[in-house]
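Give me the fold.
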Amino acid sequence: MAEQGNGESGAAVTGGEGGSESSAVDNPGLPPHRPRLADVDEKAAKRNERQVSVLFLISIIGTILSFIGYFVVGQTEGNLGDLRLQNTLLGVGTALAMLGIGLGVVHWAKTLMPDHEIVEDRKPLRTEEDRAEAEQIVTEVIDETQIKRRPLLRNTLIAAALIAPLPAVVMFRDLDRSDDFGPERMRHTLWDEGVRLVRDPTGTPIRASDLTIGSAMHVIPENLPEISSHGERIAEKAKAVVLLMRMNPDDFEHTSPGRENWTHEGIIAASKVCTHVGCPVALYERHTHHLLCPCHQSTFDAAREFKVIFGPAGRPLPQLPITVDAEGFLVARSDFTEPVGPTYWERGEA
């Protein structure tokens, strides 16, 4: 009885041959096309054209604001108000430049380009016919954009697209305006013999007793505030930042010849600038003695002179030789013995 019941149920679902035929649904086809106002009213089309052009003009204005913020505002050293105004102009200008083009293109497509739906069967590929068909498709696309019929749209779009990338190009090219920019600048930092290690940002000198085993702190050279130029001070700090750690001296697995006095009672210091692309290495795992770069996960082992044990970095972090002065404060023995920062082909040897 159970098997018979199951059979009856299956027949009810499938409906047999006659049921399959009766359940077929005819293709309703595409719904009737409803023209937009701009499709039947040229005045409405012109109004939409002007709206799109205004959006492109807004993009142009945004680009100009970016140039004004970068080249005109913020040139006074140490003026916080100018710096805020500059950042505002750069942010607002860049946003208007990008949004103006994006919104303009979307509005153009929704109000002026044809919106009818078509169904096209796939055809077998034939070299010459396919080439002719491709040319026809390109021609139709150009005609549908109405870019030939509406020169105002074309000209404002071209102008906005041409000048929108310029602020980014100029900013990246102008990251360093100094005359001596080049690989040699990365060979030397503010660290030198006798320069004290101080906390960042307070500038407080550090005694060896301030660090316990497993602790770490960010430090800068004591002579950093002596640089009067704000821009130069930022650049020098970016090269000289150091991560200071204290380990059990027995945990050091390897010490190269000549580095025997680079640490003090388990206190060791290394550049924070990752040797991959220059991100700040600031994550210290006290149990494994690993330093992690958060950008691309390059991992360095402090117990083995900051050797790379994982990730894309190509060389160890430069180690800063340290000792203590007569007052017990931690000081540098010298500058880094190799260039800090990412590896580059001109780097050579220090």
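Residues 1-20 have pLDDT under 50 and may be disordered.
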